[in-house]
Amino acid sequence: MDRANTKVAVVGTGVIGAGWAVHFLAQGFDVTATDPAPGAEARLREWVDAEWPTAQALGLAHGASKDRLSFTTDVAQAVQGAVFIQESSPERLDVKHALIRAIESAAGTDVIIASSSSGLSASEIQAGATHPERIVLGHPFNPPHLIPLVEVGGGKLTSAENVTRAMAFYASTGKKAIRINKEVKGHIANRLQVALWQEAISLVQRGVASVEDIDTAISYGPGLRWALLGPFINLHASGGAGGITHLLQHLGGSQREWARDLGKYPETDDYIDQIARGVDDELKGRDFAAMLRERDELLVQLIATKASKSQIP
Predict the structure, then answer these.
(1) Which of 102, 70, 75 minimizes the C-alpha distance to 5?
(2) Which of 102, 147, 161 shows the shortest CA–CA distance to 129?
(3) Which residues of 8-25 are buried (b: 16+ CB within 10 A; e: fewer)?
(4) Count of helices and strands (H, E) across the chain
(5) Is residue 189 predicted with pLDDT exceeding 90?
(6) For all residues of the chain together, what is the average pLDDT?
(7) What is the distance between the alpha carbons of residues 177 and 185, in angstroms, rounded to a whole number?
(8) Cβ distance 155 to 182 under 8 Å?
(9) Rg of the chain's alpha carbons, rounded to an integer?
(10) By C-alpha distance, which of 36, 165, 156 is closest to 102?
């Protein structure tokens, strides 16, 4: 698809906004970014330069170039003429409401405004907007230019048509969009992560295993399968000929017992030092920056391999 002279606006250029900028540039769009923070443009351009090799490894769309990035501190100028607006400002309603007012002063009335918010709901963000029907949640997984997932949902005043439009737009840029049918705190993927983190922290606190061994348990155990197929399909595969029905009938009682024994998320911050020390121990003698680079290289290979398989969703 030729996206010459087709502009996407990125409002807010922290880690998430910068990742979105790389993603949209790699997809062949013109990107105009805006952020009021001192030095924001220099930091953004450094980020784009640093992450461009990863974007190239994933594959660039026709005409994609990091030179198609422009920057302004004027929100209205940034969004004027944009076909899609991705907002990634701090998780504060006063900030987001002010930005929505500035965006709506210049953006076309039918242009979707998608918020990257990981905690605030679309209903909260769209309150007071002139055209709340076009405000959606577009929550990515970090880093947005690498991880395909984006969670899309509407608020109380969002039109169903605009949620569908947002999902179609993201899909056209290579994203794996999932639809949030009902607003809940933390959306979908973060809630699943928190469930795992809760038990991981509990196992450390109870002396069952070390931080490093729990990381190993996931990264060399179920995490390998989860990277390829989700939890329900993996359960179905574990059930043999009877599938997930047989497995849940066979193990349901045991799973209920295990579930009753799961730990709770700590009510105070006392656990933080213990977990942090465990992470420090795990990282001794390792180059963490190099580890992340290697992680990204493997993610690129995994994403490419999954894309080449016809039956992997």
Answers:
(1) 70
(2) 102
(3) bbbbbbbebbbbbbbbbb
(4) 13, 8
(5) yes
(6) 96
(7) 18
(8) no
(9) 21
(10) 36
- Strands, E, within 66-198: which ranges? 69-72, 84-87, 113-115, 135-140, 149-154, 176-180
One-character DSSP codes across 248-305: HHHHHHHHHHHHHTPPPPPSSTTHHHHHHHHHHHHHTT--HHHHHHHHHHHHHHHHHH
Q: Give the span between the Cα atoms of 154 and 53, in whole angstroms.
A: 34
Name the token pair of 226: 């989860």
Q: What is the pLDDT of residues 37-72, one digit of tens each?
A: 999 999 999 999 999 999 999 999 999 999 999 999
The 10 Å Cβ neighbour count of residue 288 is 9
Q: Is 171 in contact with 152 (CB distance < 8 Å)?
A: no
Letter for the amino acid at 89?
S
Please give the Cα distance from 227 to 286 (Å, whole number).
Answer: 24
**Binning pLDDT at 50, 70 and 90, where does residue 296 land?**
very high
Report the distance separating Cα 268 and Cα 266, nearest Å. 6
Q: What does the block give as tokens for 128?
A: 């007071």
Q: Write out the two tokens for 290.
A: 């190099």
Which residue, chain included where needed, has tokens 């992680």? 295
Residue 211, both tokens? 């931080």
The answer to whether 74 and 4 are in contact (CB under 8 A) is no
- E strand or H helix that includes residue 9: strand 7-11
DSSP reduced 3-state for 57: helix
Rounded Cα distance between 11 and 72, Å, is 10
What's the token pair of residue 233? Answer: 């399909």
